[in-house]
Amino acid sequence: MQYYNNEIEQKYPKLLNYFKNGIKDDNKSISHCLLFWGADITSQCELALEIARLLNCNENGDFSCNCLNCRWIREQTHPAVKIYTRLDFKENDTASDDSETTKGKKNININQAKAIINELSVTSDYHRVYIFCDRDENGNLLPLNQINFPEATSNALLKTFEEPPADTTFIFLTKDKNDVISTVVSRAQSFFVPADNKNEYNHDLVDNTVQNYWNIDKQQVLSFEENLYQLANDNEPIEILEQFQNYILETIKSNLENKHIFYKLTKDLSYIEDAKRQLSLTPSMDLRAVIENLCFKIIL
Ligand SMILES: [Zn+2]
Q1: Per residue in 121-158, is it b (16+ CB within 10 Å) or e — as a string?
Q2: 49/246 Cα distance (integer angstroms)
Q3: Per-residue pLDDT for 63 more than 50?
Q4: What is the per-residue pLDDT across 98-128, written as a single tens digit (0 to 9) for each?
Q5: How far apart are the C-alpha atoms of 107 and 242, rounded to whole Å?
Q6: Distant-in-sequence contacts of 225-231, Cβ < 8 A, 24+ apart
Q7: What is the pLDDT, as a whole number, of residue 141?
Q8: Considering only CA atoms, which of 247, 246, 237, 243 is closest in space to residue 288?
Q9: Burial bucket for residue 189 (CB in 10 Å: 0-12, 13-18, 19+)
């Protein structure tokens, strides 16, 4: 599975700037244990790979750099940059007395921890980056928790996390800091990584404008329309329409028993979807006309 994202720089400009400066500046060095938390594990992994690139680049770390290290990391073939999950480890026949196979393997086990310690005892020409997370059989990334990254494993690695060899960085990907053993959390520098789609389930921007909009009477349509237009005009219009949909989805969930509202709101969702489509397919589309048309359908 490919996780490197060529648009990562636009996605997290502030976070990446922080790491870029920290990596360049010897005094402000970045911790060798980083913990990312938030709902979006794939984006965390993309960010971790980009940090691995900054740490390994032979040139100045520019996004367009084409040095061998940068190329390897983009292709995910770098020998020292590893995404480490319970499934990405083959048990050595002689190393284990249990018959655990990769299939159905529940966690990053002690043998994996030992393999890491062995590997780190040999020096490397590269900056080694171990990205710890979980994944399913299809390659979808999942967060670390105390089942897939149990206490016994983290204890075995604790000393390594505390005093790793030079040029080694560990990055932990998780949903909630409480899902990772506290002894690891206390040794790591933590960063909240916002979800890729910042609109996901969010409707903060539209709350004041669209609250209970189905109760608006016809005399107020023009002011509702004007407010919605201003909001869309002052922000990214698609984002506003998406938040409007999020608001409706949440309302539907809490009004499941009211068939009338359910029917109306479901229809409105598709009207908003039409408006989004109009705006995204035709950038020259007159925003006011789209909003007017939408309000006409959902209010009257
Ligand atoms: Zn480079």
Answers
A1: eeeeebbbbbbbbbbeeeeebbbbbeebbbeebbebbb
A2: 31
A3: yes
A4: 445 566 788 999 999 999 999 999 999 999 9
A5: 38
A6: 225/291, 225/292, 225/295, 225/299, 228/291, 228/294, 228/295, 229/287, 229/288, 229/291, 229/292, 231/205, 231/206
A7: 95
A8: 237
A9: exposed
The DSSP code for 144 is B
The SS3 of residue 58 is coil
**Separation between Cα atoms, residue 104 and residue 279, nearest integer Å:** 47
- Give 130's strand partners: 82, 170
Report the separation in Å between the CA atom of 72 and the middle of ligand 1, taken as the mean of its atom positions.
Answer: 10
Q: How far is the CA of 75 from the centre of ligand 1 (A)?
A: 13
Q: Distance, CA 151 to ligand 1 centroid (Å)? A: 37
33 alpha carbon – ligand 1 mean position (Å)? 22
Q: Is the pTM for the entire model greater than 0.85?
A: no
Q: Which of 125, 127, 116, 123 is nearest to 161 (CA)?
A: 116
Spatial contact of 85 and 133, defined as CB atoms under 8 Å apart: yes
What are the backbone angles phi and psi of residue 259, rounded to the nearest 5°?
A: -65, -35
Cβ atoms < 10 Å from Cβ of 220: 13
Between helix 287-299 and helix 259-281 the angle, nearest 10°, is: 170
CA pair distance 31, 247, nearest whole angstrom? 40
Question: Rounded to the nearest whole angstrom, what is the distance from the C-alpha of residue 8 to the centroid of ligand 1?
Answer: 15
